[in-house]
Amino acid sequence: MRVLICYASTEGQTRKICRFCAEQLIAHGHSVEMLPVAEAGEIALAPFDAAILAGSVHLGRLQAPLSAFAADHALALNRLPTLFLVVSLAIASGEAEDRAELDRIAAEFCAGGGWRPGRILHVAGAFRFSEYDVFRSLAMRWIARRRGQQVDPHQDREYTDWPALAEALAEWAGPGA
Ligand SMILES: Cc1cc2nc3c(=O)[nH]c(=O)nc-3n(C[C@H](O)[C@H](O)[C@H](O)COP(=O)(O)O)c2cc1C
């Protein structure tokens, strides 16, 4: 398969997740074009056999440029096998309430533009204090405290479950993957 991976990443974890997906797919014989949404512009989807869109949740929403891309290409995307990677910290809690909120965020993202992803996968992201400004760092420490999590503001902390992601990706890409 020739797979397009189009992503939006504010602090870099979604980019890292997409790079991992690209490596996995390539290792299984697929070819991959991985593009930040800002560079995807008017890309034609016709040459691709499948597509992955990936974005991260900030203040209850995914990145607007990714939503615009999904809306602009909804018709073509709906003809392909697609996977929507929704990166967040809330999914790491394992709480049903958090999961329901993330499902709502993903559904809202898709409803606006008419894209119907073949599969939606929630992926735990990371605290990236090395990328935050003072305001973000304080906000994230506050969020962590409210959730009863201990975080060291001098250290990034990753929650992404790489083996689970590899498994879900292989399942999506089919027996050849
Ligand atoms: C300012 C800010 C707001 C965030 N808001 C949310 C949120 O509403 N829900 C959530 O689950 N995660 C939230 N996160 C966590 C991000 O989704 C997580 O850090 C993710 O790994 C970011 O991916 P990225 O580095 O690709 O942008 C927030 C992070 C920041 C910095």
Features of the shown structure:
177 residues, alpha/beta, Rossmann fold, two-stranded antiparallel sheet, 7 helices, 42% helix, globular, binds flavin mononucleotide, Flavoprotein-like_sf
Structural description of this entry:
With 177 residues, the chain is an alpha/beta fold. It has a single domain (2-125, 160-173), classed as Flavodoxin domain (Rossmann fold). It contains seven helices and seven strands, in the order E-H-E-H-E-H-H-E-H-E-E-H-E-H. It has helices at 13-27, 37-40, 64-72, 74-77, 96-113, 134-146, 162-173, and strands spanning 2-7, 31-36, 50-56, 82-88, 119-124, 126-127, 157-158. A five-stranded parallel sheet has the order 2-1-3-4-5. Strand 1, helix 1 (13-27) and strand 2 (31-36) form a beta-alpha-beta unit. Helix 1 (13-27) crosses helix 7. The longest helix has 18 residues, at 96-113. The chain binds flavin mononucleotide (FMN). The site of flavin mononucleotide has 21 residues, from helix 1, strand 4 and helix 6. Flavin mononucleotide binds next to helix 1, strand 4 and helix 6. Pfam families: Flavodoxin_5 (PF12724). This is Flavodoxin domain-containing protein. Residues 4-150 form the Flavodoxin domain.
Q: How would you characterize the largest beta sheet? A: 5 strands, parallel
Distance between the termini: 9 Å
Name of the CATH homologous superfamily? Flavodoxin domain
Name of the CATH class: Alpha Beta
Overall shape: globular
Strand order of the largest sheet: 2-1-3-4-5
Helix/strand/pairing category: alpha/beta
Under CATH, the topology is which? Rossmann fold
